[in-house]
Amino acid sequence: MLRTYRGRAVLAVPGTDSVIPAEVTASVAAALAANASFTRLDLPRAEHRLGLWFRDHAEDRRRFVDVVLADGAQGPPFGSGRPGEAAPFDRRRHDPNDRP
Question: What residues contact residue 43 under an 8 Å CB cut-off, 6+ apart?
Answer without folding.
Answer: 12, 13, 14, 15, 50, 53, 60
